[in-house]
Amino acid sequence: MFRQTKAMLQKLRYLSFNGQQHTWRLKSTSAERALQYQQGQKIHGFTVKEVVAVPDLFLTAVKLTHDKTGAQYLHAARDDSNNLFSVQFRTTPMDSTGVPHILEHTVLCGSEKYPCRDPFFKMLNRSLSTFMNAFTASDYTMYPFSTQNGKDFQNLLSVYLDAVFFPCLREQDFWQEGWRLENENPKDPNSPLVFKGVVFNEMKGAFSDNERLYAQHLQNKLYPDHTYSVVSGGEPLIIPDLTWEQLRQFHATHYHPSNARFFTYGDLPLEQHLKQIEEEALSKFERIDPNTEVPPQPHWSSPREDHVTCSPDALAPDPTRQNTLCVSYLLGDITDAFEGFTLSLLSSLMISGPNSPFYKALIEPKIGTDFSSVVGYDGSTKEASFSIGLQGMAEEDTERVKQIINQTIDDIIENGFVEERIEALLHKIEIQMKHQSTNFGLSLASYIASSWNHDGDPVQLLQISDSVATFRQALAENPRFLQDKVKHYFKENTHRLTLSMSPDEAYLEKQAKAEEEKLQKKIQALSDSDRKEIYEKGLELLDAQSKTQDASCLPALKVSDIQPTIPLTPVQISTAGGVPVQYCEQPTNGLVYFRAMCSLNTLPEDLRLYVPLFCSVITRMGCGGLDYRQQAQQMDLRTGGMSVSTQVIPDSTQLDVYEQGVLLSSSCLERNLPHMFQLWSDIFNSPHFDDEERLRVLVMMSAQELANGISYSGHMYAMTRAGRHLTPAGDLQESFSGMEQVKFMKRIAEMSDLGPVIRTLPRIKKHLLNPDSMRCAINSTPQKLSDTAAQLESFIKDIAENRRERKPIRANVIERPLDPLDDSGPSRKLISELNFQPCQMKTFFQMPFPVNFVSESLRTVPFSHEDYASLCLLARMMTAKFLHGEIREKGGAYGGGARMGGGGLFSFYSYRDPNSVGTLSAFRKGVDWAKSGQFTQQDIDEAKLSVFSAVDSPVAPADKGMGLFLSGVTDEMKQSHRERLFAVTHKNLVDVAKRYLSIGQRTCGAAILGPENETIEKDPSWIVK
Ligand SMILES: [Zn+2]
Fold first, then answer.
1. What is the SS3 assignment for 1002?
2. How far apart are CA 762 and CA 758, in angstroms?
3. Distance from the CA of 909 to the CA of which of 134, 594, 876, 899 falls in 20 to 30 A?
4. DSSP H or E stretch at residue 129
């Protein structure tokens, strides 16, 4: 688990209201109650320092410190039942051994009170948590969880506190999670010694992602004098320099209350949290001076340049253009909240969207495929940075790009920004604050983490409208306010780094050679007795990993703690201008959410692969009287975004029936509803397709984004491919979002003449944007519903000329009523391919990664089948009780497991896996394990808790009713699925494992993405791509 924090505005996206309380009159709200705390009040060893109402976000912030240790505490009281806890430590390593990252993994391997192996993963199955994770950033490590259940909160808090403050940190945990030398086959002392370890492999995988590699180099080189000059996650070849003793030492000095910041959020009472934290952890410590401050980076007197290399990207749109270049500027201290707010806004004005000066100057001339992976404001380090540059460019354009960057900065200083763009950005902030997400607590925790980590005031960060007001005032007082900032931070800033990166054909080979040398050096230093010890320790570890574990020390919820019934989501189904509409009343906090599902049934087969491209360009090329710049401006100013995406929706009753379409989604403030519908009307009636230059920019960016995504989401691509020949929906899914689509977009990006594509897009439009095969959904407040209905009616009238009755391409269309109680009402039209023949196919994609993504998929049963619930539970139980141990602990992969998909495919997968065919046999062993029935009632109950914590995860008001709208899954169907889940027995699980998961009885597909693989190449049953 490792991540890098993103720029502030990206985090702001997730900020939102709960929305049910428009006023603070109700005395009962959590926020109101929290206002009664007094400064100086003593509570369970803590002293209240500050109590601040933050009406923008409907919360009260209570700041405290722990008297004895100096631990800091922030509580955000808010009427949200999805309560969150997080504790973060300032972890500032001075080498690249990955010590904070390995520590993050090992503290989760067992603690004093909970000495069983891996309590963290075990709690996933003993809790109804809505989120559990741990992160290592460049300078802090954070442990957050959230849950809607009060008892669960206490259980998880106890496990988290014990893990971070009293971990066992056994030598064996260090070997398993960090690194170790071990016989390739631990049972054979004569097999060669190799490096193993979860973090070792995780980081090898992470750095196979060129974007990630570049970001790491850039940070290391821009801040060369302290902790940011090293890799906190671990440099694979330096990880083996870390010792167990150093790990324990790092824990003692960094994971101490005096170096800790606690954050709690939600409607549970603060006193209870404080009491538990004091009793179970803090009371056992004395104050220390952790000495973890990060000093300011000394400023350079002149700019610097540097160069790094990476592996070539086989999927890059143009292999001769694979260079990256960007200029990075050191900015001010992030603890200055207003300066951070201003710089983050300024960054958006400079780079976001087709109206920004850098988009015009760098993207539109098509010198590169997209901005560099690191771009814009980054507030995740003590002093922020701003980066601008390109990826996918040719080496000879280097000087030109540097010149354009300088010139653009000069132009901005000279001309400033159009006022309307500033307004659009402030509008965006208003929407982001009003939009309600389901993980608000987590968003807050990560939003304040970096600044608070360096003793910035987290409460000030939350007061966003204060910042907006100060910003408006600054702009009113000095119209050149922003231009002056640009001059100061960019033009006159000598602390800037120009970093280029180019592919090296021999890169992977060199990496492998360096690893081999490191390995040999370690091996040569070994005595015979060392070797013997390594062999014995390897066996010990294997033995420990194979043992059935007693997890009874861990707290757990019971199946009886789960709510027996689901809350209902009432909707009304009606029509507007002949088009079916679903209305859902929700506390949306003044926003209206609009969706339209348009069927693909009449689209000729040869146009299918073009649909994702159509979706990504249809809202971005201009429409009606607006060119694409004006369109983007109007969308920013009037809506919370407008997007179109492909949909493949499997039927809930039959595997060979599915619905295909595209989904239009948008939202806006209530006052902007007419503007939003006007934009959609223009898109329906007169979209612009003929600007080849604009299209090429969009195509390049899409192709680049797809190619970059594979090393991150390889398991998704492997699963999609493995399911391709098993159901008709699986086949369509591969066309829309699998490797087939990646390769198709690469071909399009390589076309010198996009004329044929330009002629194709209007043909697709005729089939898709047709009110005759469309249905809509509206989520809004009850007060706004009738007005919204009237406006929707007139929108449908506006687009009536697009109405065409067309014949579906495939004759076998079946209808399902939209309202399950009204068979004669409006319906969804599904494609039925009852004579579809599933077939077995194994595909291998050779990729420039050092790790594999492995998947196997089996055709089973649809959602409404009586065995579906058993298969869901089986997947969860196999993951927790068998596959996790085989694939992650023993195999050294970052992750792996099984999941049951709504389309009836049961899929196994592994993530960043050193093994390939070995993992396929681990999947098979998992099936044998399931068939043998060697699991207990406790295992089944844990799987039930785990499945229900997903089933019952909170749904945002914007998304309520969407299951019914898209898939026709009613509350009654959900309730019967729920009852089946409760009823699943040991016998059911063994039965479904035998019936559906045995090879030879059912059709199964497999796919692997990974490096050159001799075993597979020699095996004729594989197709190698
Ligand atoms: Zn990790």
1. strand
2. 8
3. 134
4. strand 129-132
Q: How far apart are CA 978 and CA 873, in angstroms?
A: 12
**Residue 308: closest CA among 325, 285, 290:** 325
pLDDT of res. 1000: 64
- Residue 738 three-state SS: coil
* 380-411 tens-digit pLDDT: 999 999 999 999 999 999 999 999 999 999 99
Condensed to tens digits (0 to 9), the pLDDT of residues 951-1010 reads: 998 899 999 999 999 999 999 999 999 999 999 999 999 999 999 998 765 689 999 999
The structure tokens listed for 496 are 């800037």
CA of 178 from ligand 1 middle (Å) equals 10
DSSP 6: P
Distance (angstroms) between ligand 1 centre and the Cα of 116 equals 20
Tell me how far apart the terminal alpha carbons of the chain are, to the nearest angstrom.
Answer: 31
- For the stretch 611-626, pLDDT in tens is 999 999 999 999 999 9
CA of 386 to the centre of ligand 1 (A): 27
Which conformational region is residue 938 in: left (phi greater than 0), alpha (psi within -120 to 50 degrees), or beta? Answer: alpha
Contact 647, 688 (CB under 8 A): no
Residue numbers annotated as active site: 104
Average pLDDT of 870-889? 94
545 compared with 814, residue with greater pLDDT: 814
Residue whose structure tokens are 């952790």: 290
**pLDDT reported for residue 498:** 98
Q: What 8-state DSSP symbol labels residue 910?
A: E
Tell me the pLDDT tens digit for each residue of 339-356: 999 999 999 999 999 999
Burial 433-465 (b: 16+ CB within 10 A, else e): bbbbbbbbbbbbbbbbbbbbbbebbbbbbbbbe
Residues 514-532: tens digit of each pLDDT: 999 999 999 999 999 999 9
At residue 243, φ and ψ (nearest 5 deg) are -105, 160
C-alpha of residue 883 to centroid of ligand 1, in Å:
18
Question: Which pLDDT tens digit goes with each residue over 565-596?
Answer: 998 999 999 999 889 999 999 888 889 999 99
Closest CA to 840 of 1010, 725, 720, 673: 725
* Nearest alpha carbon to residue 122 among 545, 561, 560, 554: 554
Q: Which two tokens stand for residue 222?
A: 């821009």
At 774 the three-state DSSP class reads strand
Buried b or exposed e, range 610-637, using 16+ CB within 10 angstroms: bbbbbbbbbbbbbbbebebeebbbbbbb
Per-residue tokens: 1001: 């009885």
989: CA distance to ligand 1 center in Å? 32
Distance CA 893, CA 881 (A): 16
Enclosing H/E stretch for 617: helix 611-617
pLDDT digits (tens, 9 = 90+) for 980-996: 999 999 999 999 999 99
Q: What is the pLDDT of residue 619?
A: 96
539 alpha carbon – ligand 1 mean position (Å) = 24
**Bridge partner residues of 828 (DSSP):** 816
Q: How far is the CA of 538 from the centre of ligand 1 (A)?
A: 22
pLDDT, tens digit (0-9, with 9 covering 90-100), for 428-480? 888 887 887 888 899 999 999 999 999 999 999 999 889 999 999 999 999 99
Q: What separation in angstroms does the CA of 659 have from each of 264, 412, 809, 873, 970?
A: 43, 49, 13, 26, 17
* CA pair distance 460, 89, nearest whole angstrom: 21
User: Is residue 707 within 8 Å of residue 316, measured between CB atoms?
Assistant: yes
- Could you tell me if 8 and 377 are in contact, meaning their C-beta atoms sit under 8 angstroms apart? yes
Q: Which pair of structure tokens corresponds to residue 737? A: 């979002």
Residues 6+ apart with CB under 8 A from 272: 154
The rounded Å distance from CA 751 to ligand 1 centre is 40
Q: Kindly indicate the confidence band of residue 16, based on its pLDDT and cuts at 50, 70 and 90.
A: very low
Decide if 483 contacts 416 (C-beta within 8 A).
yes
Query: What's the 487 CA to ligand 1 centre distance in angstroms?
Result: 40
